[in-house]
Amino acid sequence: MLYREGLSGNVLLLAILAAFLSILSLILKESSFDLPFTDRVLTGPQFLMGVIAFIAGIGWLMVRNMVAKRLRRRLYTYIVIGVLASAAFIGSVDYAFEKVLAQHQRDRILVMLGQMEDPQGLGYNVKQSQTAIGSGGFGGKGYLEGTSPNSSTCPCRAPISSSAPWARSGAFLGTATVVILLTVLILRIIRISDRQRSRFTRIYAYCVASIFFHLMITSA
Q1: Is 47 left (phi over 0), alpha (psi -120 to 50) or beta?
Q2: Mean pLDDT of the chain
Q3: Which range has the worst mean pLDDT, 71-85, 111-125, 138-152, 162-176?
């Protein structure tokens, strides 16, 4: 929405890179890597920084061999700033994860990333929803039919679990149909919003589209 209203694409790109680095840092947090031909062991964040430095080195060589001299200094500056910013960001992810987030928030993130198994606790609703949806197969079991009752399979009406009963009934075909219909509806709302002259009206329509986008994500 903000991008369509004139926000620089660089901000969107930086946000995507920050999210990508955060996820990789958390996934590799407890990992270790042996350096070949040495006895040294790298931690996950150190290995990630090594990969970034390697990519930056390739970019440096490409700039030196393929870019005009008058443009090299600026690109060199971007590469150095990018490496330093990545190192600072990766170092801050662990601090923010351990010191800023509450315990239940850390647990939910770890369960979502597959770093912690808790099928009877935090991961219960997701696990039972996956079981309920998978039991429908390709064509589904029919309306209100299934191997598990709706109330006991998904006791907490979270978005991902609330879609499990009808997803089990319709299975792949039913869920795909719902996702396609929601996609058409979202595109229609965006098309209408682009025609509005008032900024408030456009932003309001984008917000309505984001609500249906959330429903589509939870259904998918």
Answers
A1: alpha
A2: 78
A3: 138-152
